[in-house]
Amino acid sequence: RRCTMNITMALDPFQKKAAGKKSEAVSDVNLEKDPTIQSALALYRTQRRGYYEDEIPILTPQQINRFYQEYVELPGIISPGNDKDRTYSFLTLLINRSHQVGHNDFYLNTQAGCMWALGRMVRGSPNRRLSITIHGDVGHDYASYCEYVDSVVLGNAGQSAAHYAENSTFVFKGSVDHGAGSQSKNSYLHIENLIDTMLGEYAKNSYFMIKGRFLQQNYHHNDYPHNSTFHVFNKDAYDALSNGSNFHKGANTVILK
């Protein structure tokens, strides 16, 4: 499947970006061994559960992408489903540390393999948001518990993407599994393909731009969103939401364009 990076994020009422360090061109990746990346891998191999902040090497967004490529290519280091808690938390540390020193724009190529909870607990700030573009798919819990993040995912997303996200924006170009945007607050989700159930469950003051279709005609919430807006572009999605159980108890709005 061929993907393109020429995507403009849909208008977001919460977005407030500030200039940071300019990202290196993705095409400029140096395939030779990078000592900074190797130090990050060496630290990861210690298999510790916690790290001091000054231990974390400062990687550029380009180097973090390369770190991801190293881990998916090296057998026995990290693989989907193996040491998943330690893996996502270490990548989050690298991204947050890089953002602290001024980098805003991150890019990860996941076509060789996606992982659970990628981007979990990454955090920008109100004055300098953190941007992540994913070239490929993401597993369950993508960018859950994140704050002040703007993300474009060019592939598909597993369960509970953007779960508990706050003040963040997401564009999903592929399909999303159930629970996307659940428990989110003041956030924006733009979904262009198939959607499973429980979209926006418990969400508060969030906005959902839905260009795709629901996999089930009778959309179901175990509990309902609150004060959220669902902007849909086809009658099937409109009917699925309007007929959904509990949906209208939370003062939500459905708009059919």
Q: What is the compact description of this entry?
A:
This protein has helices at residues 35-45, 61-73, 84-100, 235-242, and strands at 105-109, 130-135, 149-153, 169-172, 188-191, 207-210, 229-232, 253-256.
For the largest sheet, list the strands in their spatial order. Answer: 1-2-3-4-5-6-7-8
Helix/strand-derived category reads: alpha/beta
Annotation field: number of helices = 4
| N to C succession of SSEs | HHHEEEEEEEHE
Work out the number of β strands.
Answer: 8
Shape verdict: elongated
Stretches where pLDDT is under 50 for at least 5 consecutive residues are 1-17, 22-31, 73-81
Classify the beta-strand content into a percent band.
5-15%
Q: In terms of quaternary structure, what is this?
A: single chain
Describe the protein's architecture and organization.
Helix 4 links the parallel strand 7 and strand 8 (253-256). Helices cover 19% and strands 14% of the residues. By secondary structure, the chain is of the alpha/beta class. Residues 1-17, 22-31 and 73-81 have low confidence and may be disordered. The chain has an 8-stranded parallel β-sheet with strand order 1-2-3-4-5-6-7-8. The protein has helices at 35-45, 61-73, 84-100, 235-242, and strands at residues 105-109, 130-135, 149-153, 169-172, 188-191, 207-210, 229-232, 253-256. Helix 1 packs across helix 2 (61-73). The longest helix is centred in the middle third of the chain and has 17 residues, at 84-100. The chain is elongated and about 55 Å long. It is built from 4 helices and 8 strands; from the N terminus they run αααβββββββαβ.
